[in-house]
Design brief:
The chain has 211 residues and is mainly α. The chain has helices at 2-27, 33-45, 49-68, 74-77, 79-96, 105-129, 135-146, 151-174, 182-207. The protein is globular.
Length: 211
């Protein structure tokens, strides 16, 4: 039963994370760095954010395979399942929040704040349950371990690459920068700290759900 409960809590973490992404998009104030490429690809291709998220995450898994080669294990391969399921949850969350878009700036800020809290809880729950790591973080960890670089440094560089790539794709294919605003900067500066707060205050409560 503990393993089943752990998996259920993990799935709940994915759902919470997907709603965090949906709220950040609906706020219209900019998505988080790791969501910037899927969002931009969605605007370019006309596909759903869930579909492009699955595609981007799958690309991150392929890069892990290229780096790890024979050290690529079944645990890494399971990230494909995570990516597909998370893509479905993201589309579900986008559908359920479809009527929340507004032009009222204070409300947008409130939605952004909600998104940051949801993302922090979602990310921490997924990490704490330790079922399957999400693909972008899996790629960051793979690079950090393979070349013996501090995880946080690789994460920071990865976020910059995501945002830079999103800007280039937006300018080339859309003609303007899309999905990147003050909320992107706020997310970059605050999500890590919020995860720290969740870890300190809610670790035992979250863990008690599956232990």
């Amino acid at each position: 039963m503990p393993n089943i409960r752990r998996f259920i809590v993990y799935i709940l973490g994915l759902v919470v994370l997907s709603f965090g992404i949906a709220f950040s998009i609906r706020s219209g104030l900019g998505v988080s760095p790791v969501s910037s490429i899927p969002y931009t690809l969605s605007r370019i291709s006309g596909q759903t954010v869930g579909f492009t998220t699955t595609a981007f995450y799958s690309f991150c898994i392929v890069l892990q395979l290229v780096i790890l080669k024979k050290d690529f294990k079944l645990r890494h391969l399971l990230q494909f399942v995570f990516s597909y399921v998370f893509g479905l949850f993201t589309d579900m969350s986008m559908f359920l929040t479809r009527n929340l878009a507004t032009d009222v700036y204070p409300v947008r800020l409130a939605m952004l704040a909600i998104s940051l809290v949801l993302i922090a809880f979602g990310v921490y729950t997924v990490v704490l349950t330790d079922v399957v790591m999400n693909a972008p973080d899996g790629l960051v960890k793979t690079i950090a371990d393979h070349w013996h670089i501090e995880f946080s440094k690789v994460k920071s560089i990865f976020d910059v690459i995501c945002v830079s790539t999103s800007i280039i794709l937006s300018l080339v294919f859309v003609g303007n920068i899309t999905g990147l605003r003050e909320g992107t900067i706020i997310a970059s500066l605050s999500i890590g700290r919020l995860i720290g707060v969740v870890s300190r205050r809610y670790k035992e409560k979250i863990a008690s759900l599956y232990t």
